[in-house]
Specification:
Number of helices: 13
Helix content: 25-40%
Strand content: 15-25%
Order of helices and strands: HEHEEHEHHEEEHHEHHEEHEHHEEHE
Low-confidence stretches: 1-5, 112-116
Mean pLDDT: 93
Radius of gyration: 20 Å
Number of strands: 14
Distance between the termini: 42 Å
Structural class: alpha/beta
Shape: globular
Amino acid sequence: MAMLKSLAFACALLALVATVATASPYKRTVSYAGQKVFHCQVGGRAEAVRLSTSPDLDVWSVAANGSATVRTLNVLGEAELRATGRCDVAIRDLEAWIGPHEAALKRRSSGTLNQTLDWFDDYHPYEDIVGFYTALAAEHPGLVKLTPSIGQSIELRPMPAVRISAVSEPSTVPRILLTCQIHAREWVSSSTCMYIAERLAQGFVSDERVRTILDNAEVHIVPFVNPDGYAFSWTNDRLWRKNRRQNSNPNCDGVDLNRNFNIRWAEPGGGSSGNPCSETYHGLGAESEPEIEHLVNYFRKEAPIVAGIDYHSYSQLILRPWGFTLDPPPHEAQLKAIGDQMSEVIRSVHGMEYVSQPGMDLYPTVGTSSDWYFSDDASETNKGHRCAGYTIELRDTGRYGFILPPNQIIPTGEENLEGLLFFIEQFLNNPLPFP
């Protein structure tokens, strides 16, 4: 699919970003010396929870077959994995492994933006992504509306939001919510959301399917749930996950924003931790983090939101409620059918397999975005609807993981755009009622 067909948009984007961007080229100040990555066969949900909450480990992914990719943060973590007898070394020296990937990124990020007119040739820092959405709204003033900030992060960065719809405001039409970059290191999340936004805006004129959707619904995108963490992954630590909350332990910053929602928050055995040094630290209370407070307020303000997707990476999964129990949720048959069919739609584009399953089939998680979207707490202010909340784990299945090469940005966007169009059509035609 040809990208950025509008030369006016491309030129506006280049000019605007050249004016407003203040980001430095990519750099890293932390060392991964001594860290390893293991492939493990997890011995059940309890062990998966123990690994995911350990302050000495960083679980990168858990696959549908029960295998996990786990990074050791210190010698204690390595000893813990070796003691299971079910873990094999995949990356013996993380510092050495990541070096060549970073070298290419440094060369690209230190160049000038006008070396290419194709925005999706590469990843982009926070300031440039804000510029992208600013230019998109300027190019499509009757279709794309940018809210510069729905609130500020811990470090006072604006959290923008984008509305894409041909329906005049105020309206009562259903809304679809897409959230991106809740975990800092998952760069293909924000790239996929930009791809979707650009194709919806450009496709309104040329694609009858897109036009029908935008004539009857609003698509809302929150490009950064975690702007501080994302910026930090460009300037300090490429593998940073959490936000930038300064905790009581000065050596352990950050809260896992996807454990901070008011849905079974901090429930024991639920895949979140009270230890600030853990990668799944849930914070001091539900919605304790301003980023989650602002997102929740935006959700309530924009009701009715009939369906939502939170884009993550990696593992190629389509996850539906619940993440904390094996008990089937309300409307399970419909949720499963749509997830399964979306998997088929995605596979039809490039042949990539995205496994559709309940979140709990991997391991328990509490306080997550998609479970909250679907929760009674969210539904009570959602004007008679229960939001169908899904999490999509994007490419790949572990060859590159978080360091996904930029040549996979466009195909990831293409397959997920098709999945999203199908997803929107299903929930516009058959939204979930509440109660």
